[in-house]
Amino acid sequence: MIAAAFFLTLMAVLIVCAAPSPTTRQTPGGRRLLDGYSTKITFARDPDVSLWEVSVKPPGIDGGDPIDTNTMHNVSWRTMAARALKTLTESTFTAAYDPDCYNQLLQLVNVYDTLTVRFPDGSTLAFYGFLRQFDPNDNTEGEMPTATVTFQPTNYDYTNAVEAAPVLTSVAGT
Q1: Domain spanning 35-62+82-174 has what CATH number?
Q2: pLDDT digits (tens, 9 = 90+) for 50-69
Q3: Beta strands in the chain (DSSP E)
Q4: Bridge partners, residue 168, by sequence
Q5: CA 66, 68, 74 angle in degrees (round to 5)?
Q6: Is 0.90 surpassed by the pTM of this model?
């Protein structure tokens, strides 16, 4: 009787725990960007802020660290689960600047805003966030002065007090 119960339990585990099967990679749809020129950032509160983008690192997407689901019943492998929430990660860009931008940036730092990343193909990624930091790089003879600008997505619409996902607007053909 005990052997039969053990066998049925083992069979149930084997049925539930099917091995993963490989999937063949397919050709991606859409079209890839061929050149990073010209990617630009817009702050809705000051769309003509005196910053000229030199290089842009758009925000990424982060699912967060895995959740440890190990128990004393694990036999051979540590197990984990994916988190439910996602993060639109901070972004930076290097920009040439007019010293007058200090007055403009004082009105933008830590102020909730809509930010837009415009990709070279014309697609846009709009999201809620704020300018977190303007950090001038060393001024050197023979080089254009630049600054590193950091902005933080919040994924939160403070006007309407609701969570808000970023909005990607693709152009035709993507």
Answers
A1: 2.40.30
A2: 999 999 999 999 999 999 99
A3: 40-43, 51-57, 61-62, 67-68, 80-81, 87-88, 91-97, 113-118, 124-136, 146-153, 156-157, 162-163, 167-169
A4: 125
A5: 135
A6: no
